[in-house]
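In response to reviewer comment 3 from the previous cycle, which asked for concrete evidence that the modeling workflow produces usable outputs, we include below a single protein chain processed end to end. The sequence was submitted unchanged, and the resulting structure tokens are shown without manual editing.
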Amino acid sequence: MSTIDPRSSGTPQANESSSLQRLFGDSDDLLPLWIAEPYVELAPTIVEALEERASASWYGYETRPESVLSSFWDWTAQRHGWESRSHRTVVSPSIGTSMGALIEELTEEGDGVILQPPVFTDFKPIVMKLHRRVARNSLALCDSGYGMNLDDLEVNASDPGTKMMILCNPHNPVGRVWTVDELRAVARICEHNDVFVLSDEIHADLVLPGHTFTPFANAANGTEVRWAATHGPIKTFGLAGVADSLIVTDDEIADVFETRSSQLHLTRNNVFGIAAFEAGYRTGGPWLDGFIELLSANYRMLSEGLPEGIELIDPEGTYLAWLDFRNLGMDVPELAQWLPAKAGLALSPGHWFGREGAGFARMTVAADPNVIEEAISRLVAAVS
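The workflow returned the following structure tokens.
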């Protein structure tokens, strides 16, 4: 697979110099690896589909053909053994749009929404801006890695004011791919306490060898828990700036979301998004297989090359390495300054994901091996 160095001027990261400067300072030599996107050349078949659509020279209203949604279900059946059955599949402009709309419809101001920090930075602000309350069900870290605190989840879910849970599967940033047993336990707890589960599964395709993605829908079989899941090609194929996302559910909330989307005029199609979406799911399999091989190799290189005092939390999925710096003995402000100033790395400080992330940092490994090697070299030099 050919790749692009994220330090080169032609990449999206380098073109976001204002964000880089604002977040990490004015250094000219920062290696930016904080954004959750793949910095490799994308699937040629997707690029070709976009070029072909652009060559049509008209970009007006376009109806989304049925083949677009069927491409997603053909993909999930082949890659994950998950078929549509009676599920509803609704198009949404983004994961954040889906999350905000569902929180608004399923909860009232002041209600609790369960999060499992350290977790993706956007979850908490969405909850807070809608004047809901974050119910923290912090992940537990032990020698074998991260796990769910199910006893605490039961306590949170049993609160009459808690109405919803946002599940991250696979988990960003800690890299867990939750097992069937873990997901069934969540389903049973939330069923028993009438808590709606929104499972963010946008990293579903990015699972490393030896692990298997389980859709929450499958784990919920045999229960009456209410649920919805968010999906789409944006992380799988690096299409966050182009393609739409999806809500999958067997719940009547699908009708409510479609009505709200129509009210807010969120249903207009993007002609390039349509082309990229279907091209990815129809033709992107071989590219993704090569991409996961690259990720596996980069994770191995990172694990073996880190200096003493820095550890990689064993990854199961995503292309987001969760690095443990706690043995270096720095507090939160010191680590946040040390990474760009001394190591020359723009990584996401762990406290961005909640106080449970203090002492950690997130780094993308979806890059050329030479870039990962350079990041390791910088860490070694900074520690020594």
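Residues 1-15 have pLDDT under 50 and may be disordered. We consider this sufficient to address the reviewer's concern, and the full set will be provided in the supplementary archive.
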